[in-house]
Specification:
The complex is a heterodimer of chains A (about 325) and B (about 525). Chain A is mainly alpha-helical. Chain A has helices spanning about 1-30, 35-40, 45-55, 60-75, 85-120, 125-140, 145-160, 175-210, 210-220, 225-260, 265-275, 280-305. Chain A folds into 2 domains: about 10-75, no CATH class; about 90-305, MetI-like fold (Orthogonal Bundle), CATH 1.10.3720.10. Classes of the chains: A mainly alpha (about 325), B alpha+beta (about 525).
């Protein structure tokens, strides 16, 4: 197992290199000019050109890519063109809000969606099943920003229970931390809940039709035992796969959610950097996201062995 | 009682058992202003980056030698006295005593010399001073002097003007940074009323300014950038909220105190809230700009440019940009800001009255236009520019023109507009932008109006007549002479169609009713503002 983990971790290196090359190439080919943004609207073309030269953006692709790669290999993500701050510092500032948002969303989603899916499968065809499926369709269909605005309108503006926007670090207290993340997590989690609930239902339906479930019933085992000890454990592999795939969905959704709720996370950092063409920041964040995604996939692969002992690496 | 208030009260009571700390907490809250700026404060080098938001943040941190007041007249700020020779070639200035930087060091003439040396290459008026400069020298710790080889009458205006880049005074070691290189974040050290809390800065989310206890405000009442900049807050927090609907909700919910630029669409909602005040932000407003490329056909022919000029309907543009709130816009047969000494309509008749579509078609045909695609760059991520682009699209089609509508983001427009290549090969014919009214009052620093060919702003207009009249303004020593120059510039620039103003429009600002002292101006002025 350890050898497998080591191989998978090592395999991330070429993956990251390919990602790095593509990201750098795309940014090089994409239109837009950070120097023009920095110089401001009133700047002359000559001013823009001088700033471009001072940033080194007038040098050939190979030189720039080589320098960047060399720095990356030394653990240096570079310095933001706009803020003059190290990219690693900017990412460190933003990682807590995004991680918190995603962890709360995932936790919330699993706690809600899995029981929903199980119940829908257990009571297939009933009003519970139809209700869960209707919710899933709603969750899939309504964009995150619409859900976000609706939640903010109801729970912040009308009821004044929760704040509209912002983020408070955990170090400043658990409730202030949590109250800022409740609405964003629900907004972001709605699609995720819908996805997991549907997959759980579908997988559970398949498992519940298996012979060993009938045997368990025949033995007189209770519904709870059948559902959660026998059926759910066997359905866990595809469910955990979907949860893993959903992480990518969450990263995309976090960009929107963080903008709607003004959370200073990595999603907003990415959007701001793209709009300004802050190349070092874009490259740093994309590399980080790729790395996280590779690690999540590894984690899910390892989780398979827990759910299904027949799986060996 | 609302649940949040109840919870907060319960927690406070549970932890203290007394009401007094709550009162103290409220008083402390009143010493903090939560402000939502127009854009992200991505850096704090007002010479290197000349975005307005950077200028606005910098005005808290750095001080200037002079500052314009609400009459657009520069008043002494860091300067105690000044004198010039009768021929305007020698200017000598003396600094006020007791000025200190945030690191405790005194502000000396050497700091001023280094700061102005860094500022001059980046500023149009600074470049004019630089072109006449024999020496800029520190005479003693509080006295510095310009020695010029030609007269320069607009020196005080140049040092105190509020359009970017402003002549902020930095410590010498910071100001020695090249004008085209950004200063380090740890070098954000000014002598203004607030110091920057670099440790709390999260670019894209929050910037915090803390009161500078050693700041010595002038004795006069504050008036824009002039007078005593007395701060009633210990902290000013700039919260970057990119989504306007979220910012509106946060203001309604009392999570922020002051929003610099609410969208016109959201203003009716804000007005319905009795805890919120809404008013015009900047009386100098903005001038919408229809910018054409003078290098390529058909707009290298003045007849084609004039065809657009006689067909353009400013009302269409203004309604598209700010809606039907007629308090927010007016027609503008001028290149200059209404309500200022610069404003003139002389020469602007072509933009008045019924529009002449037929005449425009004839003029276009005379210019040789025969249906080739017209490349229009439209920044879709900037609401006013998207709106202007749509109107232009319809206008050009109504004139029988073929439109290559390039819908992209502002970053791409910013890059592509710098290209002099033919439109079909990466260049362009038309793009839209707007100019802050504060930038459209001094012709020599009004980049968009300059018409010096290759050295001009994007579009590269070439009109010796316009340049001659700008020189006349520069050398004008009396208000009458300046007025004559404004009339002549407007006439020449309209005749040669340097660009086409497509209207004048204002924007709103909004704040909680418990905040007082907010004034209208070209930037948010925090001095004199308080919260109860």
């Amino acid at each position: 197992m350890l050898a497998y983990i080591a191989r998978r971790v090592l395999a991330t290196i070429p993956v990251m290199l390919i990602v790095a090359f593509f990201v750098f190439s795309l940014l090089y080919l994409a239109p837009g000019d950070p120097a023009a943004v920095i110089a401001g609207d009133q700047a002359t073309p000559q001013d823009v050109e001088r700033i471009r030269a001072s940033l080194g953006l007038d040098r050939p692709f190979v030189v720039r890519f080589g320098e960047w790669l060399w720095r990356i290999m030394q653990g240096d993500l570079g310095v933001s063109i706009f803020t003059n701050l190290p990219v690693s510092h900017m990412i460190a500032q933003r990682i807590e809000p995004t991680t918190s948002l995603m962890l709360i969303t995932i936790t919330l989603a699993i706690l809600i969606a899995v029981p929903m899916g199980v119940m829908a499968a257990w009571k297939a065809g009933s009003w519970i099943d139809r209700g869960v499926m209707a919710f899933a369709v709603f969750g899939f269909s309504v964009p995150v920003f619409v859900t976000g605005y609706l939640l903010a309108y109801i729970f912040a503006l009308q009821l004044e229970w929760l704040p509209v926007q912002g983020y408070t670090p955990l170090s400043q207290g658990f409730w202030p931390f949590l109250e800022n993340l409740i609405l964003p997590s629900i907004a972001l989690g709605s699609i995720y809940i819908a996805l997991i609930a549907r997959i759980t239902r579908a997988t559970m339906l398949e498992v519940l039709a298996q012979d060993y479930i009938r045997t368990a019933k025949a033995k007189g085992l209770g519904s709870r035992g059948i559902l959660f000890l026998h059926a759910l454990k066997n359905a866990a592999v595809p469910i955990s796969t979907v949860i893993g795939i959903g992480i990518a969905l969450l990263i995309g959704g976090a960009v929107v959610t963080e903008s709607v709720f003004a959370i200073p996370g990595l999603g907003r950092l990415t959007v701001d950097a793209i709009l300004r063409r802050d190349y070092p920041v874009i490259q740093g964040v994309v590399l980080l996201f790729s790395f996280i995604y590779v690690l999540v996939n590894l984690g899910i692969d390892l989780l398979y062995t827990v759910f299904d002992p027949r799986i060996r690496y | 009682m609302k649940r949040r208030n109840f919870l907060a009260g319960t927690v406070a009571a549970g932890t203290t058992g007394f009401a007094a700390p709550s009162v103290r907490g409220q008083a402390a809250a009143n010493r903090v202003l939560r402000f939502v700026p127009q854009a992200n404060l991505a850096n704090l080098d007002p010479i290197w980056g000349t975005q307005y938001v950077v200028r606005n943040g910098s005005a808290l941190i750095w001080d200037t030698l002079y500052g314009v007041d609400s009459k657009l007249e520069p008043q002494r700020q860091m300067v105690e006295s000044e004198e010039h020779s009768p021929d305007f070639k020698t200017w000598t200035f003396r600094l006020r005593s007791g000025l200190k930087f945030h690191n405790g060091q005194p502000v000396l003439s050497k700091d001023v010399v280094a700061s102005l040396t860094r500022w001059m290459p980046r500023d149009p008026l600074g470049q004019l001073i630089r072109g006449r400069l024999d020496a800029l020298e520190a005479v003693d710790d509080r006295t510095f002097r310009f020695r010029l080889n030609q007269p320069f009458t607009k020196m005080i205006f140049a040092l105190g003007k509020n359009n970017t880049p402003m002549a902020f005074i930095m410590p010498e070691h910071v100001a020695k940074t090249d004008s085209f290189t950004q200063i380090k974040p740890e070098d954000v050290i000014g002598s203004g009323p607030m110091r920057f809390r670099r440790d709390e800065w999260v670019p894209g989310s929050k910037a915090v300014f803390e009161r500078f206890a050693d700041y010595q405000p002038r004795q006069e009442a504050p008036d824009w950038l002039a007078g005593g900049k007395r701060m009633n807050f210990d902290r000013i927090e700039w919260n970057i909220i990119p989504d306007p609907a979220t910012a509106a909700a946060a203001l309604q919910n009392g999570e922020i105190d002051w929003w610099e630029t609410p969208l016109p669409d959201l203003v009716p909602v804000l007005r319905r809230n009795r805890n919120i005040m809404v008013d015009i932000a900047d009386p100098l407003g903005n001038i919408g700009s229809f910018r054409v490329n003078h290098l390529h056909a058909p707009f290298n022919d003045v007849r084609a440019r004039r065809a657009i000029q006689m067909a353009i309907n400013q009302e269409d543009y203004m309604r598209a940009v700010v809606g039907n709130d007629e308090a927010l816009w007016k027609l503008l047969p001028s290149f200059f800001t209404p309500g200022t000494p610069a404003y003139t309509e002389v020469g602007g008749d072509i933009l008045k009255g019924p529009r002449n579509i037929e005449g425009a078609r004839r003029l276009l045909a005379e210019s040789g236009y025969s249906g080739q695609p017209i490349t229009v760059l439209v920044g879709q991520d900037q609401a006013p520019l998207k709106a202007m682009g749509e109107v232009t699209n319809a206008l050009l089609r109504s004139l029988g023109m073929t439109v290559d509508f390039v819908a992209t983001d502002w970053g791409t427009v910013g890059q592509r507009r710098a290209s002099k290549a033919p439109p079909g090969q990466g260049g362009w014919h038309i793009f839209h932008t707007w100019h802050a009214g504060a930038d459209c009052i001094a012709p020599a620093s009004y980049n968009a109006l300059r018409a010096n060919g290759d050295g001009a702003w994007f579009g590269w207009p070439n009109s010796p007549a316009v340049e001659t009249e700008i020189d006349s303004w520069l050398n004008a020593a009396t208000p009458q002479a300046e007025k004559a120059a404004f009339d002549a510039i407007n006439t020449a620039a309209m005749r040669d169609v340097v660009y086409i103003p497509n209207g004048f429009y204002l924007g709103y600002q909004a704040w909680r009713r418990n905040v007082t002292g907010i004034t209208k101006g070209p930037l948010p002025f925090f001095w004199g503002v308080s919260k109860t």
